[in-house]
Amino acid sequence: MDWRVKGLVQKVLGGVPGGDKVHYLLQRRGGVLRNFETECDIKVDDWRLMMGHLRAAKARVAGASFFEIGTGWYPAFPLLFYLAGAGRIDTVDLQRLLRSELLLACAERLREHVPLIARLTGEDPSRLVTRHAELLHALYQGRSLEEASHGVIAYRAPCDAAATGLPDATFDCVFSNSVLEHIPPAIIASCFTEARRILKPGGIAVHSVNCGDHYAYVDKSIDQLHYLQYSEAAWARWNNRFLYQNRLRAIDFTELAQAAGFTLELDTSRPHPERLRQLAAIEVAPMFAHYTREQLAITSVDFVARQPARATVAVPRRFARAESPTI
């Protein structure tokens, strides 16, 4: 599909009554949710990588408390952490997106990944099988996610991750997966400030960011650096409520975390030779002139940031202007 067609359709649907329902149905029939098992498996692999980051940070999972920014249509990470023995998982969306049929489908699919969960956590496989079976049975009985998880998983929507209203020092870990690239910069800064408040002393933030042009997944004629050619005004024509992309580079996310007072412990961002080649073939918009070629060419980053002693928050000036949330 031509990326402009997708952008135009989403732009129209984002502004008409019932557009959310139509957009979801389109994703189920021909979009990213068409092959849900594969989509779910990708999320499990992302969680596997996150577990590696947690191990490197010497962070425990069993009994620990987690806060997820951006649940989406199905709660893959909360279900995985629940099965892994986490003590509490709060997962939030600015608007209610969770779909019961995808929640069930995800829980079903995780049956295939119980051996992986056991291997990564050291949990008794038979105990995990029982925990998964009880969860699935409760969901099929019509229980809510919170009830089915014995109160461990709380889905909060609408809930603003920049102003949760939750008590100070509640969580061991705040995390997100492929979410921050869809949030305006000033709001990311506010989310990081709030994360510092609700994290326990010594707690960590773990974020995985896909900062390439998402239209490249549906239109193979463009690459993940494609959107760097457009001015802010030109890109606004294609940005929409269902696929808002802030076009920040990896360094922006880590700088925002450090400006919020976090200490950076891991940054996986590295320029790929193929991306550097692709960059040389396009004319980058002047608004990106302050980045190096390497910074522009990076299209993904995982980073771990730790909560130190309280510190003054200083948001970088280029991110300080007010912006309205779009998702």
Explain what you see.
With 327 residues, the protein is α/β, with parallel strands linked by helices. It is globular and about 55 Å long. Strands 3-2-1-4-5-7-6 form a seven-stranded mixed beta sheet, sandwiched between helices. 37% of the residues are buried. The chain contains 13 helices and seven strands. It has helices spanning 3-13, 19-30, 36-56, 76-83, 100-109, 114-121, 125-140, 145-148, 185-198, 232-236, 250-259, 273-280, 293-297; strands at residues 65-69, 88-92, 153-156, 171-177, 199-210, 263-267, 300-306. Helix 9 (185-198) links the parallel strand 4 and strand 5. The protein has a single domain (3-305), classed as Vaccinia Virus protein VP39 (Rossmann fold).
Helix-strand pattern = HHHEHEHHHHEEHEHHEHHE
Helix content: 40-55%
Flag low-confidence runs: 311-315, 321-327
* C-alpha termini separation: 24 Å
